[in-house]
Each structure stands twice: as structure tokens, then as C-alpha cells.
Amino acid sequence: MTAPTATAPERDQPEDPHGGPAEAAVRAADDAFDRDVLPSPPGATGALLRSLLAPRKARVVLTVLLLLLQQAAVQAGPLLVAYAIDHAVPALRDDDHGPLIAVGAGYLLCSLAAGALQYAFIAAAARVNQDVLLDLRGRIFRHAQALSVDFHERYTSGRLISRSTTDVESLRELLDEGLQELVTVILSFVYIAALLLWLDWGLGAVAVASFVPLYALVRLYQRRAGRVYRKRSTAIAAVIVKFVETMNGIRPVRAFRREAANDADFAVLNHRHERTNGDALLEMARYVVGSRLVANTAVAGIVLWGAYRVADGTLALGVLAAAVLYLRRLYDPIDRLGMFLNSYQSAAASLEKIAGLLAQTPSVPEPAAPKELPPPASEHPGREVVFDSVSFGYRTGGEVLPRFSLTLPAGQTVAVVGSTGAGKSTLAKLLARFYDPSAGRVLLDGTDLRDLAVPELRRGVVMVTQEAFLFSGTVADNIAVGRPEATREEIERAAKAIGAHDFIAALPDGYDTDVRKRGGRISAGQRQLVGFARALLADPAVLILDEATSSLDIPGERAVQRAMATVLKGRTAVVIAHRLSTVEIADRVLVMEHGRIVEDGTPDELIAGTGRFADLHRAWRDSLA
Amino acid sequence: MSTKPAPTTDLAPDPAPEAAQDPAERHSTVRALLRLWPYVRPVRARLGTAAAIAILASCVGLVIPLVLKWMVDGPVADRDPAGVWLGALYLLLLGLAEALLFGFRRWLVARPLAGVEAGMRADLYRHLQRLPVAFHDRWASGQLLSRGTTDLMLLRMFLAFPLTFLLVNGVTILIGVGIMLVQDWTLGLVILGPAIPVMITCGIFEKKYSAVARRAQDQVGDLTTVVEESVLGIRIIKGFGRHRSQARAFHELSHTLRGTELRKARLLAAIWAVIVTLPEVAIGAALVVGAVQVADGALSAGTLVAFLSTALALRWPVESIGFLLAMSQEAATATDRYFEVMDAEVEADPVAEVEADPVAEARAAEGASRDVRPRGEARLPAAAGGLRFEHVRFRYPDAAPGSTPLLTDIDLHIRPGESMALVGATGSGKTTLTALVPRLHEVTEGRITLDGADIATLSRRELRSMVAVAFEEPTLFSATVGENVLMGAGEGAGEKELDRALAIAQADFAHALPEGTGTQVGEQGLSLSGGQRQRLALARAVVGRPRFLVLDDPLSALDVHTEAAVEAALRQVLADTTALIVAHRPSTVLLADRVALLSEGRIAAVGTHHELLRTNAEYAHLMSGLDGHGDDEGFQGGDGR
What we know:
heterodimer, A: 4-stranded antiparallel β-sheet, 10 strands, B: alpha/beta, ABC transporter transmembrane region fold
């Protein structure tokens, strides 16, 4: 009769750390992203749940069927008690052992069936639950990967991660504990009510009547607890944010002696959570008292009336005994109903967030009919890039790049300079197809980037960015991201070409050093070198470097430039840099300002001129003198 | 997109720190849980009362069947309506008492237990803030977070339920069994039959189950890592078109997890099958035996009804023992995990560093007030003054014992008011060296003095009030721009200091933000570009007019124009501040009066930029990328092509 976690106490959902307080904190922006409420079409949550369950309809039906049978077996007990008292005992007095043997056999059968069915039910339900979770996890993962970089920049990593962890987790709790609990409770209510009505419609009617105040209580609790729980999850989210922020920023915390101030801030947040946590527990206490009072009063009333009628002779004693046994079972699961409501509420909120995420359409979709790049035009591996009347603005408005056209001949190395916000990175991202242009086309040897499937696109264009993220695994694994099928020799050759071999060889296990393990300290500059080795290994036709040398020292930068001149010779390259030393290797320089290309020429031409680049270059050379 | 590890409430253990836990796991559940006593002590009276009340309520529940028996055998059999009324009244009163007692119990413990949880969390936070930076290097914030949330929640639940109910259910079972045996000892024994087998099976399954559960937890952790990395590294994945290999890794892990979860579910199903079947069989047997006795007249019908009611009432306490023990096991693991962190030693200070310590407080205040006075007022003769490294040797505490230290022998003297640039190849230990000054890491050997005082003799509080730092990775906290910058100043700093600092760091953009310097930034607020964050971090470092300034590559994310403007303003600040500046580029080096070259764990050369450029080949190489002597003529053509 009881599911595994029967009185498992209420759990708080350590909720999405980015949800609640963000609303309070960000006053300025009225953006759906900032408030973490991505629009999802009405009914999307229900539709999502249905679409998850639909493929396993047969199993769901089987699970419910198993539970129906299991409950039938469990609820047969008291009925057999009634039969034993009212029929088997008198029969026994007449030396008729038949009924008693029947009762014994029936009870044994029911017990065994209840156990076996319980096993089958839990196993079947777990199968459904796990398949749903597997499906959902996969959908979120694939969808997040398919969404454009533009989306990722605005949605923030923390939110995306909590979608696929905490939010999936709260659905798991609902499925594992809540849902089967609810079905069990409802089924046992229905069964018992029906049995009571069948045993004696009067007693049954009183029991059914008691559902009315109970239902009111549940609704009341649902409303009140809902409020408290929302407050609590906001409170715990604030605690989590403060906690994580402190731990991630431990160096500045220590250096600026923030410990005491942080303790005080944390105490306030922690206390707020303590209050709401206490409130939630008290709300539960009230509900338990209320429902128990109703239940026990109902039991007393039914027993009174039943006993009265047994005394009258209008009711059999066995029926009263069975009714009393059923009543105990009837009211047992009310507490658990309260807990189910909690997990349902948090799961519904989570599902809604997930549905909102899944409703986002990738702004950089894969082509329906992918094309292939034409064979290289010359013996050089580089390809020609054409921006054909391209303009770009974010979907939220504001034009970043006004309409422009630009041709980069195959094999040319182009440096793009300009101040922050001039649009250099946007240009690079359009070329890498992290974004699609709002108007116009980006062509690679005459083929629109939008017509290329991902593998083909990445043979054509690879972009190395400033943040050289390392995946868990060895250094060699990380370099092999550039070309997974590369041999160890090729990996080492790439590392050597970029000047990363020496530091890698000096790590505890050389190329096999796990970057997340002890002793695997790798500085920002070294990480950038690993990033370059990846690019070298990928060997693309067009290479984009977006601030990819910012943490390197000058010799490191030189090694990169040497590698580009030798290993990547003949490739088309676009180099974005703050530092002019990077520009030295360029065949051509573009100076950007406010989204427009304001100067375009060879370095020597521009240096000889009187434009912005000439000014910058002079200032820089002075620093070396 | 934030590049720092994202906060997840991942409950999965991280392999590295968890490895240390194996021996801990061996010691018993009880011993682990006993460590909770100091936290439970303050609420022991309430908890004790609550347990007593719960026992009382359970006993009330057990009396109800007896009243039933009395009614069936007495008034009902005698056809006495008045007696029936009385019996029902008793039932009602007992029912009300049971409900109120259970409610009272919950009311008693609700606030105290929330308090215990909050207290433990506050202690954890407090402790973590004071653990060495090296500790934080090893532990992912997600791991620490799961200790501060999920684990503490498990502990609260343990105190609320298993701790009380293991006792309560034990007592209830004893009393119930007693009642049954008194009523009819044969029937009692029949009912009691499966109790022991049930407990034994529970014990066996529990062990298997907890092993599988642990494995599932680990696999969830691995899966979370893939998810985290696929989000944090999205640009690389997209840049190289590696969706498929990530998706494959995810697919494999999530399928493995599903398999483990299913195994877990089957074990659970088996436990429940046993728990459902055995007691039910016993009740069936009791029913048959009882019916025979009633037919023989050896037993009253009322007694049989009461007996079966009692047996039913006891079913729950017996069944629950299994999961109560499982919860205790989980709580014990959570306790171990919690104390794993709490047992790590905080940095000891020569001067006891306590917030309430008036001495430290006064010293810190003195330090702060000194800061407002003009620079160059050294306490000690200038010869000994400034920032001095004497034979400093440093090896990371987690490095292999025999390995060469990262810094072998650092000797460097920065005169009072002087600014020194620190130059070295990638990975030469520049950042590490700067971390030694505010004692974020402790020197392995040798000493560092500030105006003649060994930093090891200063309290960290005092030391850090004298030294301001700007880190390579500029971290802003969830607070307003103004608060973030003023963190670097002493008490009482206001608008004026803020404006000055923002002006120096060329961070005037802050005034143009939606709410000016009152705009929220950080994870919860407006996201700023790397260059903007770097400038705010710089403003934070200079706002308190510190005597010593440590800047780790403070201008790397700035474009050329901004860099030039910051440099101009920074020069004025540096004119009379003792400063150590990590630099990669000549433009940054030129901020400083002199340059020190860090090479192979030592300071290989000290001099002005131009001196070193002429005389030191390694320096010239680092600054210009050339192998020989660097002058700007040679540089132009010699880019290695």
C-alpha cells in the first residue's frame, strides 16, 4: 500500500540559482532573458510532458494496470477479514472448514500477488521514468548545442546548466516519488470508497462525505504552501548565489578582507532562508494536524454509527471490523498527498523553464539541403571569402554592422583592428557562422555558409577565441579536439609548431596529464597555446583568431605567427587583436569604427598615411624605443 | 557568458577530493553521526521533548484498537447504545489527542531544526572563507556548494525523522508487540514471525542499494561535468564543429546512468516486495488462527478485531525501519562530506585573527587611517623599507614532494614609492609570485618584508589592508558598481574616492550605466565586457590609496586607446606607491620605474626597461620576440617569417 518513500519528508529543491533573485536584482532590464522567463507557447509544459510520455504509451498503460492489480490485491485483505468473522467463524462452529481454508488461501494468494505486483510495478515505473529522463536530458543537451552562440551569450551558462541538472532533477523526484505516490493514493481512495460503499452504503457515504473537508484542506494547503515554497526557493537561490560567488572569487575576497562583511551578508540571506524554511515546516505541521483531525473525527463518527447498527442488529460485526480496517488505510496517505503537491509544484515550475528553453528556435539552423564546397581553385589550401551586402543587428534591435561588402582573396592574412565595440568580433562571428547576417550573404568560394553542413563548414572555417577553455581529460585529448582522429605524433607536431611542447613535456604526465587533476596547473597563456594547437591540427581553409593571443607573452605570440607563416601557409586568415605586434604579419589591415571599416590597406600603406592606424602604430613603436 | 565554473547543485562527488574519503567511509555510521552533537546540543531539549511526544502519540494510536475491542465485546455485544456513545467519544478524544500531539511535535522542532541547518551552513561558509587559497584551488565550487545545500538538507531531515522515529518506532513496536502478546500470545508470535527476516533482508538489500546509489551519484556527477563543459566550451565546440563527439559522450554517459538507475530501482522493488509480502502473510496466518480460536470460543471477536487493527498499526513502524536506516546512512555520508571540509585547517595567524579581536580591529583601523595620509611616509628607514623578497622559495603544497620548486630563490627589493614591473615567460610563476605578497599562498622558505616587517608576523587582516591587488581575472561581485569598487577602500570612503578611482582606471563608463554607479553587476546583474571588468578591478585596487599595490597584468583586455589613457592616469598613482606590476608588454612595463626579469625561479635581472632591452638577451627576446639584442629597427623586419 505504500510506495517506497512513503513518509519521506519534504525536500527543498535547491532551485535554480539564477531564477528568483535575478528578478529583484535586475531592475534595469525588462528582457525575458534577464528575468529567466523565456516565452513558451501556452500549454507548452503539458505538450512537453505528453510528448515525453507518448512514445512509451504501452509501458505507461502496463504500469497503471500493474498498479490497479496490485492495489486490488492489497485492498482485498480487510474484505477477507470481514468474511472470516461473518462467515468462516460460524461455518467453523458447524465444523465446516471450507470457508476458513478459502480465507487462508485467499489471503496468502493476495499477499504474494501484492508483493510480486509491487516488484513488477516499481520496475516498470522505473523503466518509464528513466526513459523519460533520458529523453528529456538528451533533448535539452542537443537543443542547447544547436542553439546559436548569440543565444548562449544571453542565456548565461549557469542557467543552461541548471536547466539540465536541477530542473531535470526536480522532474525526476516528481516521477520517482510523487507521481506513483499520487496514482497509488488516488487508486486506494477509489478502491476503498467503492469497497466501503459495497460493504455498507451508509458507512461508505459518510466516508466519501469526509473527502469534502479533506479536499478543502488540501487546496488550502496547496495555496499556502505554494506561497511559502516559492519564497523558500527564492531564499535558497540567494544563499546559493552568494555562496558560489564567494568561492569563485576567493582571491579578491581574501585580498580585500571581505570575510567579515561576507559573513554578515550571508547571515542575512541564511536567516531569511531559515525563516521561510521554518515557515514551510510549520505549514506542513498545520496540514498534518488538520487532516488528521478530520480523519480521526470521521473514524470516530463512522465507528459510532456502525457500532450502533451492529448493536441494533442491522450491521454484521465483520463488516464493521472491515470498515474500521479500511478507514485506517483510507486516511493514511493524506500526509503524503501534501508532499506530492510540493514536488508537483516545483517540477511544474522546472518543466515550464525547460519548455521555454526548448521552444527557442536555433537562429543558425543547419541547412535542409547541404551543399559541398567546390574543390580548391588553386594549389593553395586557402579559400576566398566574400561578404556580399552583409548587415547585422541583434534580434532585440540595434544595428551592429551596417551594410557592407568585402572580399578577402584566398591566402590573404587580414588584421582587423579598432576599439572595443567597433564590431570586429561580430565580423569574425559572421564569418565563422556563429551568427547569420540579418541581410546579405557570406560566401566561401562562392558557396553561402548557410548551405554548408557543420563538418563541411568546419573544414572550411575555424575560429580560435580568447577564452581557451579546456575540457576535462588529458592535454592530448584537448588538442585532439581540433581533429579527433589525429595520431599522437600529429598532436605533438602541432604542439611543437606552436611552441607548446616544452611546457606540456614538463607537466607531471606530459601529454597524458589530466588537466583537472592535481599538478595540472596551466596558466592562461598556456591554455591559449593549447587552443592554437587545436586550430593547427584542424587545418582549416580559413582561420579566424579573435584576440587569441591576449594572454601570450611576445615570444609566444611570435611562435604563433611563425606557425601561421609555415604550417598554415596559404590559408586565408582573419586576425583580430588589440596589440599591434600581431598585425605585423598581416598582408592587409582593416580598421573598424562603429561597425564600419574606415581604413583598408597594406600595413605599410596605412603606417605611411595619416589615419588612425598610423597614429596607433607610432604610439606603439614609441613604447619599444 | 561567464567563464567561471557555473554553480550547480550537483550532488555528485568529484573524484579528486572524494578519493580521500575512502577511509572515512569505513568508520561507522554512528560515529559519523555523533559528530553532529555540538550542533544538536542547543536544541536537545526540544528534540527530546518532541521524541517523547511522538512516542506518546504513537501509543495513543495503539490504544485506539483497544477501545474498539472494548466496544465490540462490551456495548455492541450487550446492545447498549449508551456504551456505544461512550466508546465513540473515547475514540474521538484519542483521535484528537493523536492529531494534536503529532502536530505539536512538528511545531516543536520546525524552527530549531531550520536553525541547526542554517547554523551549520553559516559555519561552513565562514570556515571556507578562511581556508587557504590552495584548498580552493583543489575543490570545485560545485562540490563545496553541494555540501552547503543538499548535504545539510539531508542532515536536517535526519534530525527531523530518522533520529526521532528510529526511537519512536522501536518503542511503538515493543509496546504494540507487548499488547498483542498480552491479548493472545499465540497470535502475537505468529505476527512477530516475519519481523526478523524482514529486518535481515532490509539490511542485506540496504548495503547493495547504497553501493548502487553511490555509483549512480558518481555517474550523475560525470554527466553534469559533460553538460557543464559543453556549455562553457560552446565556442570551441562550435568553432571546431565538435557537436557530435560531445553528443556521443553525453549519450554514452546518460545511457550508463539509466542502466544504474534501473538496477537501483530493481533492488528497491525487491526490498518492497519482501516488505509488502511477509507481514501480509503473517497477518493472514493470524487471521486464520484467530478465526479458529474465535470459533472455539477461546477468543472474543472483539479481541480478533483489535488484534488485527494493532497488527496493521504496527506494519508501518516495521516497514519504515528500512528506509529510516537508509536515510541515516545517507546522513552519515553527508556528515562525512561536511566535516571533510570543516576539518581542513584554516590559516593560523601570529596575531589571533578574530573579527571581535579589538587588537586586530584597532591595528586594521590604524592601517586604514594611515592610508589616507600622503605616500612615502615609511615607518622605518628607507633602506629597509619598501617591498623586499629575501631568498623566497615556493612550491605548491600539492606538488610532488621531490619536484623542483616553482620559485627557487627570489631576491628582490622594491624601494618605497618605487614601482617595479615583473616580466617573465609564460608559466614562469609571475602570478604565483604576486599571490605571495598578500599571503594568498605561503612562502615555502625565505621571507617577504613590507617596510621592514616580515609579512609572516603581520596578521593577514593587517597585511591585506596595506596591500591592494588587481587580479588577472577580474572578478566582480553581485553588488553595485560603486560597492564593488569601494570594497578596496577603508570605512567611510565615499563618492569622492569612488569618482577618483573610476577616473584613474578610465572607468567613467560606469556613470553612463542605466543607474550609474548604483547599477548591479556580477552574475546577477548587468554583464560587462572583459575590458570593463578589468578597469573596475583596477579602480578597486587603487581606491583605498594603498601603500603597496600588486597588479597582475592589469591592462591585458584593454584596447590600445584605453590602455594609453589608463597608463597616463596610473602613472600619477604609481609615482608614490610601492608597486609590483606583472607585465607582458612594453607599454605596461613603461609604467614602472624598473623591471625585474623572472626566469627559472629566480630574479635574473633588474634594471630599467631600456637597460635590460640592451643588456639582457632573454628580456629583449620576451619584449620584442627577437633572439638577439632588441632595438626597434631590427624588430620591424625580424618577425620570424
